[in-house]
Design goal:
alpha/beta; Rossmann fold; two-stranded antiparallel sheet; 29 helices; elongated
Length: about 675
């Protein structure tokens, strides 16, 4: 069978990934899809580069949302394909006399090894492909050249349906290093659909993919692949198993036709490294060492920049704001209080953590792009199975260390309902980056040069909490839930690319800034309002904080924290604000202390005021109280956005149970930490 999909009579199967695409010409960003545009779905197994390809095609302007009628979240964006012989600067363009330009809607479907679903995410892919009213106009299947047979099983199932399909082959360099050579023309002839080689990490081969997609959309869907199932085999093993055997036979024949050299007998350097980093004892130690280095570098590099930004907001920015307000005749009014003591003090203090977050996200992006973070799932598989969760439950938990909200959504990759509920209840015990800002402030204030080690310790405690709470829940509520082995494709180790690392870092920093400009601004304004309202009479905006509605309410709940050692109303009120968003702990502190003493609101000045309060509330046992506070911050109820995500995924009843569990664990551990610690410090 010939593909017939080529330009200037050059078989697409011969087009490789040797040339790069011009981003300005072929990678213009999407905005969540164009109404009426053809839809292209990206499918493939996890860790094959599908999401990297999606980002390369659509740019950063994408939307995330639940697929209609489901709780499964997918990414959608616009892919603008365009080439013109007179203006295009891509070397591989060969159709000088023809201009092509169109917008396509691209959806990035959840990773799936096959169309036999084991989770809600995988079920969505199967349902879309089987429903003519929802099926995409074209499906691009990304396959791994180094593990071709494994990837082609999904292709075999798609070819049994009346769908337009293009196979995009990645990991060609990895396959070559293993002695495997891919003949894309022979592979295309064997499977009956176009095959395009590309490298999404380096954005090469994207124009060739665009040409293949454009041509395929203009023609009819190819005929379904013929299936020949032996009648005797059906009689012997049954139609279902006979059909599976036939499919595996087709996959084996296609892989043999498209490749030379099996790679068997070769041990790659990636495999040699994995023998060390995934070893039962040495693997976890290496993982802990890597994460300690990440936090040490983060606090060491970012701290000086944070101090500079803090002085900038506390000095020139605040002074300029006061001058501007005075110039328009509003000096000394509530407007000045809201602007200087509210927004600048609260949001400005939070923005001093931008260098910290940037450094953290950069280091994690490097680890992720290199392929190392995927090994963490293998390293922690034994821990996951001990609490009755499959090894891949570690994946949403890992996401939780970035943000708890998408981590809750990521529990959909788990097949069992009880496993999804248990994982969703454990996610809030993972330390999100919002907590990280508070950890760093406290650690640099009280522990100086050991700040990185203290922050690292909080993440270790977080993992311990996940395991211990998981064990407790399993042995009480889910005693009959069994464990499952870990099945995961480990991506090869690769040298991180500057473009991909920078893109991932920027997306995550932008998310942090979006939080600061959204919910934090609202929170800051509300905190200032409650601090401006007198509780027992007085003038609005000129009442001492301790006598405001905010201060009086905080003093009412403070006695609950007497056994923890941090029963100061400034601290307990900050924790209450942190219920909305954990970053609000810092902004609340900054606002409260700015109103009490406007002379200094930079990180150092704020730290000095926090030191005084902890010393007073703990009766001189400062360090036990600090550790009690950090552990309470780690374990208590996450932000309202996480609670909303939990309610959506596991229901209101389990969400309320989770809140009660988190508050109980947090308060109990904080009391034990302080009461035991005060005996020694």
């Amino acid at each position: 069978m010939t593909t017939g999909l080529n330009l200037r009579k050059l078989p697409l199967a011969r087009i490789d990934a040797s040339t790069s695409v011009a981003p300005s010409c072929h990678s213009e960003g999407g905005d969540g899809g164009v109404v009426g545009a053809p839809t292209v779905a990206l499918v493939g197994a996890p860790n094959v580069g599908k999401s990297t390809l999606f980002n390369a095609l659509t740019g950063a302007r994408v939307t995330m949302g639940n697929w209609p009628g489901t709780t499964v979240e997918v990414a959608k964006g616009t892919w603008r394909i365009r080439w013109d012989g007179k203006t295009c600067d891509c070397q591989e363009c060969t159709c000088e006399d023809t201009s092509h330009e169109r917008d396509l809607t691209v959806i990035d479907l959840p990773g799936a090894y096959s169309l036999d679903p084991e989770s809600p995410d995988e079920a969505l892919t199967r349902d879309l492909m089987d429903d003519p009213s929802q099926a995409p106009d074209l499906t691009v299947v990304l396959v791994d050249a180094a593990h071709l047979a494994r990837s082609l099983y999904l292709v075999a199932q798609l070819r049994e349906r009346p769908l337009r399909v293009i196979v995009a082959v990645s990991m060609l360099d990895i396959a070559a290093s293993q002695g495997i050579e891919l003949d894309t023309y022979a592979l295309a002839e064997s499977i009956g659909v176009p095959v395009v080689a590309l490298d999404p990490r380096r954005r090469s081969g994207l124009v060739n993919l665009a040409k293949a997609v454009d041509v395929a959309l203009a023609g009819p869907a190819p005929a379904r692949r013929p299936r020949t199932i032996d009648a005797d085999e059906v009689a012997a093993v049954g139609p279902e198993l006979a059909g599976e055997d036939e499919r595996f036979g087709w996959v084996e024949a296609a892989a043999a036709a498209g490749t030379t050299g099996s790679g068997e007998g070769r041990i790659s350097w990636s495999d040699k490294v994995d023998r060390i980093v995934t070893a039962p004892v040495l693997g976890p130690l290496i993982f802990l060492g890597v994460m300690w280095l990440v936090f040490q570098l983060t606090t060491t590099v970012a701290a000086p920049l944070q101090e500079v930004l803090g002085d900038f907001f506390a000095g020139p920015v605040s002074d300029s704001a006061r001058w501007l307000v005075g110039a328009i005749g509003l000096g000394g009014t509530w407007v000045e209080g809201l602007l200087v003591d509210g927004l600048i003090a609260g949001v400005g203090m939070l923005l001093t953590f931008v260098p910290l977050m940037t450094m953290m996200f950069l280091l994690l992006a490097l680890l992720e792009d290199s392929g190392y973070l995927a090994r963490a799932a293998v390293v922690t598989d034994r821990l996951m199975r001990s609490i009755g969760l499959p090894g891949r439950a570690f994946l949403p938990l890992i996401v939780g260390f970035g943000c708890n909200v998408p981590a809750i959504a990521a529990t959909r990759i788990l097949g069992g309902a009880r496993q999804r509920i248990l994982t969703a209840l454990l996610v809030p015990f993972t330390s999100c980056t919002a907590r990280l800002t508070v950890y760093v402030l406290i650690a640099t204030t009280f522990f100086g040069s050991y700040a990185g080690t203290v922050v690292f310790a909080m993440y270790v405690i977080s993992i311990v909490l996940v395991v211990l709470v998981g064990l407790a829940l399993r042995r009480t509520l889910w005693r009959t839930m069994g464990a499952e082995p870990l099945l995961i494709d480990l991506p090869p180790y690769q040298l991180p690319t500057a473009r991909l690392t920078a893109t991932v870092t920027w997306v995550r920093v932008k998310g942090f800034l979006k939080t600061a400009s959204g919910i934090i601004v609202t929170t800051v304004c509300l905190v200032w309002l409650f601090q401006a309202i007198p509780a027992h009479g007085g003038e609005f905006g000129k009442v001492p904080v301790v006598d405001s509605v905010y201060g009086v309410a905080a003093q009412a709940i403070t006695p609950v924290f007497e056994p923890t050692g941090f029963a100061s109303w400034q601290t307990t009120s900050a924790l209450a604000v942190g219920f909305v968003a954990k970053e609000g702990v810092i902004s609340s502190w900054a606002q409260t202390y700015a109103l009490d003493d406007p002379s200094g609101t930079g990180p150092s000045a704020l730290g000095d005021k926090i030191k005084i309060d902890f010393a007073a509330s703990s009766g001189g046992h400062t360090l036990p109280a600090v550790w009690a506070f950090l552990i309470f911050l780690l374990a208590y109820t996450p932000c309202v956005a996480t609670l909303a995500a939990q309610r959506r995924e596991i229901g209101l009843r389990w969400t309320i149970f989770g809140v009660a569990l988190q508050l109980s664990v947090a308060w109990t551990l904080a009391v034990l930490t302080f009461q035991i610690g005060r005996m020694f410090w």
